[in-house]
Amino acid sequence: MSYADALARISQIQSLFGTNTTRPASQSPSTTPSTSNGVDAAANPSSAGFQAALSAALQGANGTTSSALKDALKALGQGGATASSSASISTLSSSSTPATSSTGADVAGLANAPTTRAEAISRSQQFAGTPTALTPVQLKGVLARQGFSGEGLHVAWALAMRESGGQPGAIGHVNPNGTRDHGLFQVNDIHLGHSLDPAVMYDPDSNAAAAFKMSSHGTNFGAWGIGTSGWAGHLMRTMPTTYAQLNAAYQKWYDRYPG
């Protein structure tokens, strides 16, 4: 699950229970759900009902909570609402504290893009579900050779770090609609088969190439909640606080770009 999906899911649950942790001060209080005794659940966001619903929605089959969700919960002040155990990197992606290669050096074998589909498939299988992360400079190089340049390269790098922590093999939790997100840019299942070949989705070059295509050659990142068009614009209008938090997480990485 990507950081964006984490924030969106939490906000949906908060809306359901009438909690106000993400409601801007200028907005009127929620008029939907009250507790059985007539008290707005927003008055007690730590209520058993809210805690149970949040935990059930955010935990995976293995009973753990993803790093992305933990980060989102912390940003929203709901860090105590979920299980405290760490998530397995084999099924979850990280958004704030990326894993790094054990040596701190570039991941071997990625000096060049794969030249055949078979090679890309092999790389995808190599990375799938592992905590291996590209170094910041190595990630920048992969993105550049897939077409990103200038400001688009800067933005793409920050997004890849926000979405996966630079981990090619990051696999997201199951989303509310039953889909998953995959790889460096947490590309959703709905894009597999036309924007991204599922056989190569964990190959860093292939995933970056899909993101380049989905972002109109590095000019429109609305699909990741950046800017004002597409999904980003919808999020900005309907969930302004979530939109701001999502962009703040992105900005943190944008400021760390290895120029």
What features would you describe in this structure?
It is built from 9 helices and 2 strands, in the order ααααααββααα. The chain is mainly alpha-helical and 259 residues long. It has 2 domains: 3-81, no CATH class; 117-254, Lysozyme. It has a two-stranded antiparallel sheet with strand order 1-2. α5 packs across α6 and α6 (150-164) packs across α9 (240-254). The longest helix is centred in the first third of the chain and has 15 residues, at 3-17.
Strand order of the largest sheet: 1-2
Tally of extended strands?
2
Oligomer: single chain
How far apart are the first and last residues' alpha carbons, in Å?
A: 28 Å
What share of residues is helical? 40-55%
The largest pleated sheet is described as:
2 strands, antiparallel
Q: What is the number of independent domains?
A: 2
Task: For this entry, give a set of tags.
259 residues; mainly alpha; Lysozyme; 2 domains; two-stranded antiparallel sheet; 9 helices; globular
Itemize the secondary structure elements and their pairings.
Layout: H1 3-17, H2 48-58, H3 67-75, H4 117-127, H5 136-145, H6 150-164, E1 181-182, E2 187-188, H7 204-214, H8 230-238, H9 240-254
Antiparallel strand pairs: 1-2
Helix pairs in contact: 1-2, 1-3, 5-6, 5-7, 6-9, 8-9
